[in-house]
Design a protein that fits this description.
mainly alpha, two-stranded antiparallel ribbon, 2 strands, 77% helix, membrane, cell membrane
Length: 340
């Protein structure tokens, strides 16, 4: 990579980290109970700890910020992978129905098992992402089965099939949620909209193994993502096992998306916007697109969550709705630009 592009990449990462730090500072100090920076630092470093500050920071704000960051990181990187594998700039885990498939499986888990399991044991912590993975893989398999035409993936069929399958899984989720008790139905409905208002440290624990395992796999295969932008005949002449590489990348992306959906519900458009902005900022090499997409996702979800919990306080919007207010116009802009 030329030095000026490498310098641009480093500068972009630095700016992203500064913006994320700013959002972190605003999120942890502001809210219905404002806390000064000095009190935040003293509380975290355990200097003259205060019970009220401990409760607000460690039980409410910090877990929520961490979950928002992890979800944004996962969705941003997974979106870059899915767009790279499908060679479709409009592809996104939410638009393709992968979110809906993972969400439907987790709603089924909530419907059949949640009341019978202790939410603090290891099995309960890990079960939701596992259900999400199964649902996400099922949705992805169905979508790719119908989108496959003449031995290759048809981008237009992929989008149309994804929307249809996503609608079907969404209807199934709604049907199951209507069968729940009133309190469980309310929780499921808010969760389906995409929210992290009930974030806790157990949710962070449930996500970490999936991110720790699959993000390095994705990053290791960044060069494969670059090659997948070529025609398949060229890839075969290079001796690349195309279907095996696609399978590894897609399974990794679906696993990450499923882990995110398991703790935040269906948050769309992050995986659509972050890779597009990343490519505009630092070019087409996935070695650089992936980390920038992840950081953009962190920034987008953290900032949107702060807006969601403060704009209409004491009422609170699901973060998925706030992101959709940005994502829908952006998607329409890309759609019009693609047709042009």
């Amino acid at each position: 990579m030329p030095n000026y592009l490498k310098g641009r990449f480093i500068l972009t990462i630095f700016i992203m980290l500064c913006l994320i730090s700013l959002v972190f500072y605003i999120s942890i100090t502001n809210g219905s109970f404002d806390i000064s920076v000095s009190n935040v630092i003293r509380t975290i470093l355990r200097i003259n700890p205060n019970e009220d500050y401990d409760l607000v920071i460690f039980d409410f704000r910090l877990p929520r910020i961490v979950i928002a960051g992890l979800v944004g990181l996962g969705l941003g990187m997974a979106g870059a992978v899915i767009q790279g594998v499908t060679r479709n700039g409009l592809a996104d885990p939410g638009i393709l129905g992968i979110n809906a498939g993972a969400g439907a499986a987790i709603v089924a888990f909530m419907f059949f098992f949640q009341g019978n399991m202790n939410g603090t044991d290891l099995l309960s912590i890990m079960m939701q992402p596992i259900f999400g993975l199964v649902g996400g893989l099922l949705a992805a398999a169905i979508i790719f089965l119908f989108a496959w035409k003449n031995g290759k993936l048809d981008p237009q069929r992929l989008i149309l099939t994804g929307i249809a399958i996503g609608s079907g899984f969404g209807a199934f989720s709604l049907y199951l949620s209507l069968k729940m008790k009133a309190s469980d139905f309310e929780m499921a409905t808010v969760w389906i909209s995409g929210t992290i208002y009930n974030a806790n440290w157990y949710y962070s624990l449930s996500m970490l193994p999936w991110l720790i395992i699959f993000i390095p796999i994705i990053y290791k295969k960044a060069y494969s993502l670059d090659l997948l932008q070529l025609e398949e005949t060229s890839l075969k002449s290079l001796g690349m096992a195309v279907e095996r590489e696609k399978s590894w990348l897609l399974i990794s992306a679906v696993a990450i998306v499923s882990a995110c959906v398991s703790v935040s519900g269906s948050i769309g458009f992050v995986g659509l916007m972050a890779p597009h902005i990343a490519r505009r900022l630092i070019g087409l090499k996935h070695r650089y697109i992936l980390p920038v997409s992840g950081l953009l996702g962190v920034l987008l979800v953290m900032a949107s969550d702060f807006v969601a919990k403060t704009v209409f306080a004491p009422a609170e919007l699901p973060v998925g709705i706030v992101i959709s207010l940005i994502g829908v116009p952006y998607f329409l802009y890309l759609l019009v630009k693609t047709k042009a």
